[in-house]
Amino acid sequence: MKKLLIFLFFTTVSFAQSIYKGNVSEDGMGLPGATICVINTLKCTTSDFDGNYFIEAGIGDHLEISYIGMEKKIIKITNRSLLKNDERVTQILSNDYIQNLKKGDDSLIVSKPSGKFNFVLRSAKFRDDDIMKISRNKDGFYNIKSRNEYNKLFFEVHQEFNVSTPFRLPKYQTTYAQGRNINGGLAYQSPETDEIFSWGPNVNSLQYSQNFSEYYPQGTIVNRSSFGASPLQLYDPNHFYQNTIDSKTGFSAQIISPKGNFLKVNLSYKTGNIAIPETKNNEILTSLKYFRNVSKYSKIETLFSYNNFDNNFSNSNFGINKVIFANAVTPIHFDTKWASTLENGSQRSYSQFENNPYYLIANNQDTNKSETTSFSFKHIYSMSKNFNTINAGFQSSIISNLSGQHFYFAGNTPNFNNRIEKFKTFTVSDVYKRSIRNGGFVESKIDFRFQERNLQRNYFSGFNTAEDFPNQNALQSKLDVSQNRFEVFSTVTGSYNFRDIFSYYDEIVLKAISNFNYSSTVRNYILPGSFVSAEFKEFFHEHLTFVFSHSYTETEPSLQNNNLNFNSLRYNVNQFKLLKNDLELFTPRKAVAISENNANLNVTYRSSYYWNVNLSGYFKKVMNLYTPVFNLNTVNWSPDVNYKQKGFEFSVDKLSSGYRRLAYGFNFNFTYYRNEVTSLNNNQSRIPFAGFADVNKNYIVGQPLGVIVGNSYLRDQNQNMIIDSDGFPIKDVQHKIIGNPNPDFVVGFLNSFNYKKFTLQLSFDWSQGGEIWNGTQQTLNYYGKSELTEKDRNITNYVFPGVTTSGALNTKVVSFYDVNLPVEQNRWTRYGIDGVAENAVEDATYFRFNSINLSYLNDFYEYNNNKLSFKIALFVNNIFIITKNRTAFSNNAMFNSIDSSGLDYFNSPLMRSFGSSLTIKF
């Protein structure tokens, strides 16, 4: 029998990019069939049964990950997940080699052939019943399949459990009761008086009487008559919150035929709650994927998915924030949980001007339900140097929101909102690519897309009695809007490689992309775009890469925008209980396109000793950014903001390496950026886009994006505070810039330890600089509920630094809480519920021990090479945070929206999570 000798050549020279491995998952469950593409190229792949994928990319490239029914995600290659340096090899492979493997010649010694294997060779010899197929794909990878890999059924079960507990909660006073000073003394005021303040007497001076009431089932509160009387029972507002428990169970099954065709089914169910009592959410996700090799050169792939989600407390009308507010301001001796309704059906609260959080929960109207169905079809053809992919997809969604205010809500009239959105999207695309010499290619892509959106909203008000709510109403306002958009995306890409320009170890890659897109809703119909880049690589011993690129793109905003941020801009802070989310933003029929210019320079150094260093700088200019603009009682979605941004990112990676079975790797990254509003259209001086009418984030010419504007103390030309005749600083009626939420820089540090089958990961992050407006603290001070007022309310003989209205040095002595003056004149209540915004601005710097993740992976091989594997992981998130302020946190945005980051007004609690996950595969 003829024998074959396999020669193998290795060299450190490489003219290709590196191969990266990644994983696409949803809450720990791998997503098969996700599409991963290197942006501005035709390099695409799909994730396998476990969500894993391999793709050729370079440092600084951006990957776009898309999956039917989910939002696209873009990630940047920053030296992490690098499998290995490419090896340039010479292929020596013949039919004799394949035939000998199939025949099982015992004298054949199998060496690793040229190219790269997608598996680890377990043995140097194979029997004829082992090897069924050997193939080499276009990326140079060899795939070997044995007999027991065909006609196989795979299963995967995934269970994840997560418990979170609130932390960094506000600090409350524990000494003083509901009430105020009267006739020079501190007097308790009962709920019947509708007293909102906790500026009353010490709770130790009070006791329960023998007279019971609906407000106090323990007995009404009176002045203590004897020394031995039982003290009042006190309630910690932070005990109101509950731990959250989230659970997810997933099941996958896949069957593979001898020809490589497969069918895969995914099922998962998620359930959980938030920190507010009586909340819950449920989600069901299903998908069915079928893949078939039609011929040697073509294959088809179909995917069907369905998602169902419901939430009984969605905060679609500020309900969660109002519950947190009501709980926080309630006096420490009033038990809100005892009962939330009085016998007459009205709300049981410590004052009719304030809410009981449990009444808000029991009568919550903020619910959300959604269903999404999607289907996609893909045909892939590849032969020689030609590749063509045809995609067709359909997605349909329906989102139903109920919201409003029930009867007896303090500070608001009953209203009810029924809002239904329906979305449909159709897409058809074709991508053709032809490879040319030296790794270059020419690619064309055309994409047809049709979007349809229908919004129906009925707003009800004018209810006569509680029994009429919500069906029998006197007033009704209807909104019925349909929007359509037809788009055509056309792209032509060319790339060419020049090798051995200066030496045998270098390469230059030139790339150019041209876009001419059409949209039925943009003003000029055509959206041009372009991209050019030049990349220089040097490979001798080390790997050094320089990349310069420039791009210009024009895009248009989404058809509609609805969020809490701009709805809250109609109200001052002291009108918080009145907040309603009933305004909608619609993109104009002939919209102005958003344009963006980008220039980037990236330098990467990768050594053969597992070190990677990357430095990238960029400059970006954006024109016609859309923002909400108010005009009387209406709001428009208007392209009025132009800004520029520049910055750089530096990162260092040490790939896992170590001694024997212990390995260590890390990633350190440093990010710095600065942005500035260059101009505002329509002669506007500033545009608030998130927050309240009197404290908000803004676009202001010459200032960073999102600077915080609010009131401040009145100052003279030397910035001295001006003091009034009472001895207190004067509040300036004119608003000014009081803070910048943008950090100076951000640092991330990830550590990875591997020992045998154990992996331990530790991550830290540090954000330096920036400011946050802590309105929660201001309002708690006003009500007399904060720990600060407990400590400082008895301060006397204090002189505020500053000057009088005449310019003289202030010498007036004051008491923070003078019982001989009305309560409205003390240190904190005199400025109103919102206080002085300037006084609430705090440093947003923080250092966070972000997470710990410990995992164990084991594989068991049983009869006939069937493999059983399992992975168990334990994790903790938000371990601890160090800041100058012990409660407000810049990453915990108001209304849970990124637009309102830097604002804190009774935000949802920050959570520390403990969890585990278990994945079993067979």
Structure overview:
InterPro entries: CarboxyPept-like_regulatory (IPR008969). This is TonB-dependent receptor. It comes from Flavobacterium hercynium. The chain is mainly beta and 922 residues long. Among the domains are: 18-151, Carboxypeptidase-like, regulatory domain (Immunoglobulin-like, Sandwich); 708-922, no CATH class. The protein is 5% helix and 50% strand. The strands form eleven sheets. It has a 22-stranded antiparallel β-barrel. A four-stranded antiparallel sheet has the order 5-4-7-8, with no helix packed on it. Strands 36-37-38-40 form a four-stranded antiparallel sheet. It starts with 17 loop residues before the first strand and ends with a strand. Mean pLDDT is 85; it is low at 1-17 and 79-129.
Q: What is this structure, in a nutshell?
A:
The protein is mostly beta strands.
